[in-house]
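FAQ

Q: What does a record look like?
A: Structure on top, sequence underneath. For example:
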C-alpha cells in the first residue's frame, strides 16, 4: 500500500508571493486585461500577520457579490474561474494604479493560478468595460458570494425546521405517539 503524500506547508505570504505575474511583454491590448501586479509588501505583511480570516469591507463585499452574481448569470465565467470568483472576497481596489488593481482574498491555493486569474480578469474587464489587474492574496475572506449563499441556505433551512416544529398538526402527532420525532435532515426548504 502506498502512503499518501502531503503538500508542503507555506505561509500565506509565501503563497501569495508564489502567484507569478504575467510578463510585462505580454500584450494586454488583445484581451483588455493588464498584466497582474505583484503583491504589495503591505498586503503580503498583513496577510502573513493575520494567517486567518480577513475582514472584507461591507461595501466592497456587496459590490463583489453583485458583480460575481452578474457574471455567473450571464455565463461569463465557468468552471474554476467561476469558483475563483464565487469563493473569493474583494479586499480592496487600488484606484491610484493604472490600470486599477483589484485585490482578492483567495483561500484555496488551487484557485490562485495565473490562468484562472487571467480568465477572471478578462471577464471582469469585459463586464465592467474597463481594463483592470487582479492580485490574488492567500487569505480566508470573511465575506464572499459563496459564504453569503451558504448563510442564506442555512437561514432558509432553520426557518423551514422551525415552521415544521411549530406546526400544530406535527405537535399533536409528536405528543400522541411517544416514539415519534421529526427525522433530522428530512426537512427541506421550498
Amino acid at each position: 500500500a502506498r502512503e499518501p503524500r502531503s503538500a508542503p506547508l507555506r505561509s500565506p505570504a509565501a503563497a501569495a508571493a508564489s502567484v507569478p505575474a504575467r510578463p510585462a511583454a505580454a500584450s494586454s491590448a488583445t484581451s483588455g486585461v493588464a498584466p497582474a501586479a505583484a503583491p504589495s509588501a503591505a498586503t503580503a505583511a498583513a496577510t502573513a500577520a493575520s494567517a486567518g480570516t480577513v475582514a472584507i469591507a461591507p461595501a466592497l463585499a456587496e459590490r463583489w457579490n453583485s458583480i460575481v452574481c452578474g457574471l455567473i448569470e450571464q455565463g461569463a465565467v465557468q468552471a474554476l474561474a467561476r469558483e475563483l470568483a464565487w469563493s473569493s472576497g474583494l479586499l480592496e481596489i487600488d484606484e491610484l494604479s493604472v490600470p486599477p488593481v483589484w485585490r482578492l482574498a483567495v483561500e484555496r491555493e488551487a484557485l490562485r493560478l495565473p490562468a484562472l486569474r487571467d480568465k477572471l480578469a478578462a471577464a471582469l474587464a469585459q463586464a465592467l468595460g474597463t481594463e483592470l489587474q487582479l492580485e490574488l492574496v492567500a487569505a480566508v475572506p470573511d465575506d464572499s458570494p459563496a459564504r453569503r449563499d451558504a448563510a442564506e441556505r442555512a437561514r432558509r433551512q432553520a426557518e423551514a425546521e422551525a415552521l415544521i416544529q411549530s406546526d400544530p398538526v406535527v405537535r399533536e402527532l409528536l405528543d400522541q405517539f411517544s416514539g415519534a420525532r421529526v427525522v433530522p435532515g428530512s426537512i427541506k426548504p421550498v
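Q: Is there anything notable about this one?
A: Residues 75 and 82 are 9 Å apart (CA to CA).
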